[in-house]
Amino acid sequence: MNIQLKSEQEQFIRSQIDRGEYQTAEDVISEAFKLLEARTSKIEELRQKIAVGTAEIANGQMTDGEVVFERLQSNIDRIASDRNL
Predict the structure, then answer these.
(1) CA gap 22, 64 in Å, rounded
(2) Helix 7-18 to helix 25-58 angle, to the nearest 10 degrees?
(3) How many Å is the maximal CA-CA distance in the chain?
(4) pTM attached to this predicted model
(5) Among 26, 51, 60, 74, which residue has the least CB neighbours within 10 Å?
(6) pLDDT tens digits, 38-59
């Protein structure tokens, strides 16, 4: 596969090599693909979690936000109290 890069992209790749961050253009592109794959995976994971959460809300399986924050504050207070022993 052959691709054409914009001049800004080529300049960026060259700058990464010149700075010693990467040895070759292939290294830069490989890292870019790894980051894109990780980003794509994270987005899909978040979409799945949103779908689960949306379904739980639709089924009435949710906790009021105030209750959540009260629980968090209780945990924080307990941890702070334990440290002061």
Answers:
(1) 49
(2) 110
(3) 66
(4) 0.65
(5) 60
(6) 999 999 999 999 999 999 999 9
